[in-house]
Backbone:
C-alpha cells in the first residue's frame, strides 16, 4: 500500500532516499504525538520536521554552558568576539550553522507548542531557524548504518509552554528508561575562590574549617593536574592517594575535577599519541576549542589504546579514593571529525561516558560543558548553565561566559530537567562578603532558587572569610520539594516549590531588576522523629509535635 | 513463606505471606500489644509507625528463585508498617482531638517521604481497617501502610482511567468532577475551604464517601498547611457522622490514594483522594463482597448515592 507516494505497512510509512531509508510510526499521546521509527544507510543530515517560524520562541543550546531562553524572530545571540574565536565546537557540533543562524538543540518551544527529540544516541538533533521556517534535523554526520537503527523519536506537544517543558522532560525520561540516583549532593568546590591558583595548603585550610558545614562532598577543581591530558598531580599537590585520604579523614567524600576528552597541545599525551586524537580531513589533529591559552584537541576513544588509557585514568582516581568526579569540557568528546571507527560523534561521546561509568561504578559523576541529551542515563549530575562568577551583570552579553546572572537564568529556564534526567547543578553558591561583587540580594536569590528547585548545592568560598552562612542552611531547607516554574518566556518568573523542608513555598522573581517576593506556607505542624530499632531488626519511628518534647 | 507470585490469568501479583495465619485474633483490652506498656511499647509515646511483625512485604525479604516461564515468583520486597494514631486505646478518628489527626497527617507525609527513598518502592498505600467486619484484629486506633514494589492492579486501573479522562477532557478527572459536584451540591456530605466530601455518583458501597482536595494535588507530600488542617477536619467529621448513623462504632476501610513513586510522573493527571468503603448497608446488615463483586469487580449498590449523601449530610456533628 502507498500513501502520498510512500509505502505504508504495519502502520509504518517508509521513505526511501538515495542514500538511506526511514520507516516512521506515529503514536497519539494525551498532549500530542510521538513520531518514532528506524533508519539505515548514510543519512547525513535528515530533515524530520518543518513548520512556520513563530514571532517569539524558546531555544536551547546543545551543551551545559549555552543559553536556554526566549528569542524573537530576527534576533541573534550576542556573543563576545573573543569567545567566538576560541570556542569552536563549544557552541555547536556544527559551528558554522550556529554562527550564521539561530539554532535550538534537542527541542524548541512556542507559546502553545513544544517540539523536541526524545533521545540523542546516534544523531545530533536540532532545529534551525531558517528564513521563515523552523526545520528539525537529525545529523548523523558521516556515519553509515548497514542495518536499521532506532530513529531519535520526535515529540509534538500542544498546550502552554510552561506546562509542556516538564512534559517533554518526562517523555525523555520514559524513552531513555531513566532512574537517577537518590543522592543529590551538597558540597564544597575550590574553583570560584581559588580558580587555577589553588594550592594544597588552601585545601588543608578549608578542610579544617569545613566541618562546621553540612557538606557531603569536598571537591578539588582544575589546577591539580600537570596538563590537560596529563592527569597527574603537579608539584603543588601531593600524590592522589594522599589527596583523597586527607579529604576522607575529614569526613567528606573526595571529589576531583578532570576534562577527560580534552588534550592540550602542550601535553605529553598529545606529543606521544597523535593517533589518539580526533583528526580533520587533512589528518591533522582537529582543534576542538582554545582555553588555558592553549589549543585543545579531542581524545578519540574509538581508538582502543586511547580507550584503555581513559579507563586507566579513572581507575587510578577511583583506586586513590575519589568517589565524585566533575568531568568537564565534555563537548570535546562529541565533535565531528575523523575517528578510528566510523561511528557518529554522538555515539563516540556516549561510548566515552560508558567507559567512565564502567570504571567508576556507582561513584557520582557530574557532567559539565556537556552535550545534554546524549548524556542522559550516563551522568548523575549536570551543569545546566554557564559558569557563575563573583559578579552578577545582566547588561553584558550572556552566552557562554562566566556571570552569576546568566548562570541563575539557566538554572530557572532548564529546571524541568532536574530530578528526571539527572540532578541539575546550578553551579556554586558564592556566599562570601569579600573578594566578590555579589550583593546580598544576588547571593540570596541564587541560594533560594537553587534550593527551591531541589538542585545540587555546592559552595565555593574561602571558608576563613566572612560568609553569609545562613544562606547555605536556607538553600538546604528549601530542598526536597517539587518545583514548577511559571513564566519561562516572561521577565518575571514564579517558582512554586511544594513539599520542601519548610513546606510549600512560592517565589516571584525578576532577575534583571533584582526584585523578588517569597511566600512561605507556615501552617503545617512540625513533628520530631526518633527512630529506634528493636532487637528483631524492626524499625520504630516515634513522632511527637515539636515543642511538645517533654524530655528536651 | 514470603514471596510474590504472578497470576497470568489476571496479570497481577499475589503476595504469599504464610505467617499471616499465626496472627493473634482480637486480644482483650488488657493485653493490647500497642498500648503503652504493651508488648511493642515498654514506654509511652504519642504517635508511632513501626515495621509489622507479620509483614507481607519486607525491605530485605527472603531470596526467591523463579524458574518457570509461566509460574513466576519474586522476592516480596517492600515494607509493611503499623501506624499507631495515639497512645489512647479508647480513641478513634472520630474521637481524637483535631490536633492529633493533624499530627497523624504529618506522620503519613513523613512515612511517604521516607519510603519513597527506596527506588524499588513504586506505590505507597496508607489505609485503615476499622472493625471486625473488615478484619481488624486490634481495637487500638491504628492504620497501616504498604510500600509496594509494583503498582497494584486497582491503582493501575485508576491511573489508566485518569489518563484516558485527561485525554478526553483535557483536564484531570477529579478536577472535572469537582466542577459538577460543587455546582449541583447533590452529593456533598461536608465541605470546607479546601476539601470536599461526597458520596460519589459512582459509589460501590451503600455509604461510600470520598474526600477530594479542591486544588489539583497528587500526593500527601504536596498538600499545603491549610489543606492538611482541612483534611484532618474532614476525616473527623466523616467518621463522626458514620458513628452517629446507626449509633455504633461504624466499621470501614479508609484508603488514601496518591501518585505512584519512582516511576512515570502522574502529577498532572492524578488527583489525591480518600475513599471510605464501609461494609454496612444497615445497622445489622452487611454489604458483602460476594461472587459478582469479587469475581467480576462489578458492584451492586443497594443504596442511591444521593440519598446516602442526604442522610449523612443531615447528621449534625460539632467539631471545635
Ligand atoms: Zn491499646
Ligand atoms: Zn485534579
Residues:
Amino acid at each position: 500500500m502507498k500513501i502520498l507516494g510512500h509505502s505504508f505497512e504495519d502502520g509504518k510509512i517508509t521513505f526511501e532516499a538515495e542514500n538511506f531509508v526511514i520507516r516512521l510510526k506515529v503514536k497519539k499521546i494525551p498532549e500530542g504525538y510521538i513520531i518514532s521509527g528506524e533508519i539505515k544507510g548514510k543519512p547525513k543530515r535528515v530533515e524530520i520536521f518543518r513548520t512556520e517560524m513563530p514571532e517569539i520562541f524558546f531555544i536551547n543550546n546543545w551543551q551545559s554552558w549555552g543559553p536556554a531562553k526566549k528569542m524573537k524572530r530576527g534576533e541573534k545571540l550576542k556573543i563576545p568576539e573573543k569567545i567566538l574565536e576560541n570556542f569552536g565546537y563549544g557552541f555547536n557540533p556544527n559551528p558554522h550553522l550556529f554562527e550564521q543562524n539561530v539554532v535550538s538543540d534537542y527541542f524548541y518551544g512556542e507559546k502553545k507548542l513544544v517540539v523536541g527529540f526524545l533521545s540523542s544516541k546516534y544523531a545530533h538533533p536540532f532545529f534551525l531557524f531558517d528564513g521563515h521556517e523552523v526545520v528539525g534535523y537529525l545529523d548523523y554526520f558521516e556515519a553509515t548504518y548497514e542495518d536499521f537503527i532506532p530513529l531519535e523519536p520526535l515529540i509534538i506537544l500542544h498546550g502552554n509552554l510552561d506546562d509542556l517543558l516538564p512534559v517533554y522532560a518526562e517523555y525523555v525520561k520514559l524513552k531513555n528508561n531513566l532512574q537517577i540516583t537518590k543522592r543529590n549532593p551538597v558540597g564544597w568546590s575550590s574553583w570560584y575562590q581559588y580558580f587555577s591558583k589553588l594550592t594544597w595548603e588552601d585545601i588543608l585550610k578549608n578542610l579544617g574549617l569545613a566541618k562546621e558545614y553540612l557538606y557531603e562532598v569536598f571537591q578539588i577543581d582544575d589546577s591539580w593536574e600537570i596538563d590537560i591530558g596529563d592527569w597527574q598531580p603537579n608539584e603543588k599537590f601531593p600524590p592522589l592517594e594522599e589527596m583523597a585520604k586527607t579529604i576522607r579523614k575529614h569526613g567528606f567524600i573526595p571529589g576531583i575535577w578532570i576534562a577527560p576528552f580534552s588534550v592540550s597541545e602542550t601535553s605529553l599525551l598529545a606529543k606521544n599519541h597523535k593517533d589518539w586524537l580526533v583528526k580533520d580531513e587533512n589528518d591533522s589533529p582537529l582543534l576542538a576549542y582554545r582555553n588555558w591559552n592553549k589549543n585543545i584537541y579531542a581524545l578519540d576513544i574509538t581508538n582502543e589504546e586511547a580507550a584503555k588509557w581513559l579507563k586507566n585514568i579513572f581507575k587510578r582516581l577511583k583506586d586513590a579514593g575519589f568517589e565524585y568526579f566533575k568531568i568537564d569540557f565534555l563537548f570535546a568528546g562529541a565533535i565531528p571529525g575523523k575517528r578510528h571507527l566510523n561511528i557518529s560523534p554522538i555515539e563516540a561521546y556516549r561510548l566515552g561516558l560508558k567507559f567512565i561509568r564502567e570504571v567508576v561504578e556507582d561513584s557520582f559523576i557530574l557532567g559539565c560543558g556537556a552535550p545534554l541529551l546524549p548524556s542522559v542515563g550516563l551522568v548523575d549530575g549536570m551543569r545546566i548553565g554557564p559558569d557563575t562568577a563573583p559578579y552578577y551583570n545582566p547588561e553584558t552579553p550572556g552566552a557562554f561566559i562566566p556571570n552569576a546572572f546568566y548562570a541563575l537564568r539557566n538554572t530557572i529556564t532548564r529546571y524541568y530537567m532536574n530530578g528526571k534526567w539527572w540532578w541539575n547543578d546550578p553551579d556554586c553558591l558564592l556566599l562570601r562578603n569579600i573578594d566578590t561583587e555579589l550583593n546580598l540580594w544576588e547571593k540570596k536569590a541564587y541560594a533560594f532558587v537553587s534550593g527551591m528547585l531541589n538542585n545540587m548545592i555546592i559552595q565555593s568560598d574561602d571558608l576563613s572569610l566572612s560568609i553569609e552562612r545562613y544562606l547555605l542552611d536556607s538553600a538546604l531547607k528549601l530542598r526536597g520539594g517539587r518545583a514548577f516554574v511559571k513564566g519561562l518566556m516572561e521577565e518575571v518568573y514564579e517558582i512554586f516549590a511544594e513539599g520542601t523542608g519548610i513546606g510549600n513555598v512560592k517565589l516571584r522573581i525578576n532577575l534583571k531588576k533584582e526584585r523578588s517576593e517569597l511566600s512561605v506556607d507556615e501552617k503545617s505542624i512540625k513533628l520530631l522523629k526518633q527512630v529506634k530499632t528493636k532487637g528483631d531488626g524492626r524499625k520504630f519511628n516515634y513522632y511527637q509535635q515539636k515543642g511538645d518534647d517533654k524530655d528536651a | 513463606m514470603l514471596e510474590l507470585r504472578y497470576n497470568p490469568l489476571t496479570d497481577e501479583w499475589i503476595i504469599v505471606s504464610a505467617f499471616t495465619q499465626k496472627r493473634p485474633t482480637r486480644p482483650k483490652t488488657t493485653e493490647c500489644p500497642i498500648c503503652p506498656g504493651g508488648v511493642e511499647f515498654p514506654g509511652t509515646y504519642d504517635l508511632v509507625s513501626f515495621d509489622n511483625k507479620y509483614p507481607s512485604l519486607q525491605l530485605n525479604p527472603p531470596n526467591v528463585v523463579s524458574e518457570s516461564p509461566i509460574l513466576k515468583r519474586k522476592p516480596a520486597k517492600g515494607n509493611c508498617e503499623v501506624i499507631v494514631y495515639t497512645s489512647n486505646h479508647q480513641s478513634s478518628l472520630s474521637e481524637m482531638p483535631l490536633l492529633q489527626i493533624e499530627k497523624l497527617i504529618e506522620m503519613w507525609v513523613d512515612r511517604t517521604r521516607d519510603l519513597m527513598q527506596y527506588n524499588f518502592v513504586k506505590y505507597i498505600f496508607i489505609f485503615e481497617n476499622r472493625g471486625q467486619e473488615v478484619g481488624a484484629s486490634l481495637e487500638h486506633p491504628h492504620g497501616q501502610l504498604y510500600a509496594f514494589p509494583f503498582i497494584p492492579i486497582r491503582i493501575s486501573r485508576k491511573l489508566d482511567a485518569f489518563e484516558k479522562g485527561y485525554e478526553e477532557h483535557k483536564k484531570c478527572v477529579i478536577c472535572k468532577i469537582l466542577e459538577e459536584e460543587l455546582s449541583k451540591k447533590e452529593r456533598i456530605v461536608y465541605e470546607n475551604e479546601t476539601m470536599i466530601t461526597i458520596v460519589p455518583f459512582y459509589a460501590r458501597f451503600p455509604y461510600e464517601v470520598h474526600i477530594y482536595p479542591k486544588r489539583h494535588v497528587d500526593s500527601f507530600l504536596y498538600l499545603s498547611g491549610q489543606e492538611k488542617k482541612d483534611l484532618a477536619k474532614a476525616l473527623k467529621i466523616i467518621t463522626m457522622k458514620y458513628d452517629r448513623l446507626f449509633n455504633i462504632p461504624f466499621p470501614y476501610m479508609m484508603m488514601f490514594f496518591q501518585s505512584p513513586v519512582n516511576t512515570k510522573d502522574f502529577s498532572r493527571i492524578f488527583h489525591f483522594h480518600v475513599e471510605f468503603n464501609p461494609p454496612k448497608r444497615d445497622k445489622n446488615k452487611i454489604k458483602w463482597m460476594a461472587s459478582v463483586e469479587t469475581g467480576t469487580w462489578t458492584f451492586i449498590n443497594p443504596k442511591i448515592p444521593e440519598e446516602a449523601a442526604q442522610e449523612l449530610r443531615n447528621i449534625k456533628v460539632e467539631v471545635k
Notes: The two ends of chain B are 48 Å apart (CA to CA). The first strand of chain B starts at residue 2 and ends at 7.
